[in-house]
Amino acid sequence: MKFSLALLASSALMLTSSDVFAQPLEERAVQLEEVTVEGSRSGQEGDLTANGYVATSTRSATKTDTLILETPQSISTVTHEQLEDRKPQTLLDAVSYTPGVRTGGYGFDPRYDAFSIRGIDVTYTGVFRDGLRQVNSPNGLFRLEPYGLEGITILRGPAASIYGASSTGGIVDLISKRPTFFPFREIEIQTGSYGRLQGNFDLSGPISADNTVFYRLTGLLREAGTEIDAVKDDRIFIAPAVTWRPNDATTLTVLGEFMDSTTGGTAAYLNDYATDAAGNPTSLSIGATRTFAGDRRYNDFRQQQGRIGYEFEHRINDMFTLRQRTRFSSLGTNQEYYFGGSGLTRENNWGIVSDTHLETRLKAGAVDHTILSGLDVSRLSYVSKQGFGVVPVGADPLLNYREEQTQTLTGIYIQDQLKWRNWRLTLGGRHDWLSSEFDTAGLQFDQDDSKFTGRAALGYVTDFGLAPYVSWGTSFTPNPGTVLGGTVAEPTTGEQIELGVKYDLPGINASLRAAVFDIRQENAVVYQVIDATNQQVQLDLRSQGFELEGVASLTDGLNVQASYSYIDARIEKLTPETVGNRLTSVPYHTAALWLDYTVQGGSARGLGIAGGVRYVGSSAGDNLNRPIIENAPRAYLDAAIRYDLENLDPSLKGLRFQVNATNLLDEDGQVCTSNYCYWDEGRKVIASLRYRW
Fold first, then answer.
1. What start and end residues bound the annotated signal peptide (predicted)?
2. What mean pLDDT is predicted for residues 351-365?
3. HEC profile for 573-621?
4. Are the C-beta atoms of 162 and 62 separated by less than 8 Å?
5. CA-CA distance, 629 to 272, in Å (whole number)?
6. CB 83 within 8 A of CB 49
7. Of the four, 151, 432, 620, 651, which is 20 to 30 A from 443 by CA?
């Protein structure tokens, strides 16, 4: 029996370096006496280009420098300034204001970033780091430290035609902090709810006299608790980066990270169950109690993870640019939990991912082409040892179950972005070959498969900033570490049709987006609780809906982010009694609004006040759609206040005091997913004092 996420969870579970290099080498030799870097570095080209809250271009969608307005696909971003204003503590916090994204389906659970996009789970297959897939194993999912990010790009809909194995719902590309050209230094201390104490630093700048080598070093140390006494939130994080740019045409950046974190092995609460005439529990869950399901004496979940990789770019001439990104990652877990007995999972995974592509820009008649041709290779290996037994609390049970897998995925792809007058046409195709060796409980499963995925999208960009588009795309995702019905799970496939429109308001730093979509997905792997036991199943589903989003950073100090989503996700194949039902924990309606205002003059100059509300509509608590565990609608209020202390006294220049609160009104309702119920995370307040120089 697999213990990984089932008993453990009692649940189913930048900005860019190019701001460094925007100027020619001879101009970089200019020495400035003092430089203050605040918020996002606007107006620069690279992985994510943004002006305040409004992103203008991103490489994540096409792997080329393409304006978001001219990219015929739904794209949302979390810019550097948004990260600074909201200070998210997890990936879920960071994307919680993004349309189409459902977070909190498992209540408060700091162990995994479990979420969905457009009703499709993306926890295992939707998270990328710097344009490369983040390889995961069943119980080995990389944790995110948001302080190490420059920004986030969220692509909604399939992106497999250039990324290969990824979710039909979309991908989330996490953009790491990279070296900056100008010196940049900050230190910060934090305190807050549940005994939180944290210190962090971020240092960057040139390290060579000829301004060809630059560095960045980011880190933090935290000791903290959570609203569950048995669940810690301790962390050590360090992320070094070095960039070498010998000339304007060549750049090499090395990115590293090490993180040692400890949280809880389980964060679930016991559920009450209805019983039959004999007193045996049935599968009808009637709600979560306030009784913690684990034991604080045996509940540490320690995870050590690391990655090292590089990004190389060489502009051969005006026509050809060669890029390669490669990363090696490793992760080890030691997860203790108690659920009627002591359980232990020790899992180690290793992964290497490499993407090499050639960008070709040419003109054929009146048509401009940006052609991308590439080779993408990834390899994942993991070993999981698990045990469960009745032993003295605090003692490790015997690790009597073992599984291991090696999975290799190789893909070749080509994409052409055609530009003719106001028309924009994107065509892409990719072929992947999968090889997998899976050994569980002495049984060997070998799997070889291949799949073609494609994308076609057409857009029209008007001279006044309006850009309607239509797109089609497919996806293909193998399922590591999954055995169903005595054999390995079938790969998940999907298809989407989308119709949308984007509008960049002329003369205003603001953008509006809208999209209508229709997704069909086959053989999706999901968890559901049956007779109090968590089981994996595969199902077919269809998700339809529409999204609205608006972002703006205005000259009078006002920043706005607003979104609304309607999603109707239905089961098309699972069991006879569930066909046509709503997919568990996917609400029809979600909406969010964040307003941030900084006083521009007078005695209160530099005072920033922000508030946000996140609305989550009602949803089904299980795939049978039983009213007894339907999730009621709810709203969460967030707030922030900050002040640059130099406005009080010039000698305090560089000091900023800030307080952030999430779920300010302490909305602590019950949320049920796959027939198991949890509690929302309550109010959390963090105060910080930052010094930049």
1. 1-22
2. 98
3. ECCCCCCCCECCCCCCEEEEEEEEEECCCCCCCCEEEEEEEEEECCECC
4. yes
5. 11
6. no
7. 432
Report the Cα 477 to chain-centroid distance in Å: 17
| Pairing mode of beta strands 170-176, 127-129 | parallel
Q: What is the DSSP string of 171-199?
A: EEEEEE----SS-EEEEEEEEEGGGEEEE
One-letter amino acid at 329 equals S
Give the number of residues written for the chain. 693
> Coil, strand, or helix at residue 503?
strand
Please identify which residue in the block is written with the tokens 């307040």.
685
**DSSP letter string, 462-486:** -TTSEEEEEEEEEEEE--TT-EETT
The residue type at 656: R
Q: Are 207 and 214 spatial neighbours (Cβ–Cβ below 8 Å)?
A: yes
pTM of the entire structure?
0.91
Distances (CA, A) of 623 to 279, 281, 542, 595, 618: 25, 19, 14, 36, 14
CA atoms within 13 A on the CB side of 641: 3
**Do β-strands 127-129 and 132-133 pair in parallel, antiparallel, or remain unpaired?**
antiparallel
Strands (DSSP E) contained in 44-195 are: 48-51, 54-58, 66-67, 74-78, 101-102, 116-117, 120-121, 127-129, 132-133, 149-156, 170-176, 184-192
Q: Which of 376, 459, 576 is nearest to 75 (CA)?
A: 459
Torsion of CA 71, 75, 81, 83, to 10 degrees: -150
Residue with tokens 């559901």: 528
Query: Are the C-beta atoms of residues 37 and 693 closer than 8 Å to each other?
Result: no
Burial class (CB in 10 A: 0-12, 13-18, 19+), 531: exposed
**Predicted confidence (pLDDT) per residue in 528-565, tens digit:** 766 555 677 889 999 999 999 999 999 899 999 999 99
The answer to whether the beta carbons of residues 448 and 50 sit under 8 Å apart is no
- Distance from C-alpha of 51 to C-alpha of 46, rounded to nearest angstrom: 13
Report pLDDT for 47. Answer: 86
Residues 95 and 79 sit within 8 Å (Cβ to Cβ): no
In tens, the pLDDT along 329-352 reads 999 999 999 988 999 999 999 999
In the 8-state DSSP scheme, what is residue 74?
E
608 neighbors 626 (Cβ within 8 angstroms): no
Report CA-CA distances (Å) from 397 to 74, 105, 301, 386, 626: 48, 31, 15, 9, 37
Which of 469, 550, 512 minimizes the C-alpha distance to 70? 469
> What is the rounded CA–CA span in Å between residue 287 and residue 274?
10
Number of H helices, E strands in the chain: 5, 39
- Answer positive or negative: Cα dihedral of 626, 629, 633, 636: negative
3-state SS assignment for residue 163: helix
Taking a C-beta distance cutoff of 8 angstroms, is the pair 153, 173 a contact? yes
Q: Burial level of 692, CB count in 10 A (0-12/13-18/19+)? A: middle
Q: Which amino acid is at 374?
A: G
* Whole-number Å distance between alpha carbons of 17 and 244: 11
**Separation between Cα atoms, residue 469 and residue 656, nearest integer Å:** 43
Cβ atoms of 330 and 287 closer than 8 Å:
no
Residue 250 makes CB contacts below 8 A (sequence gap 6+) with 313, 314, 315
What are the Cα distances from residue 249, in Å, to 178, 244, 370, 371, 610? Answer: 18, 11, 18, 19, 42
Residue 440 or residue 543, greater confidence: 543
Determine whether 390 is exposed, middle or buried from the number of CB atoms within 10 Å of its CB (0-12, 13-18, 19+): exposed
Residue 133 and residue 524: Cα distance in Å, rounded? 19
Is residue 678 within 8 A of residue 672, CB to CB? The reply is yes
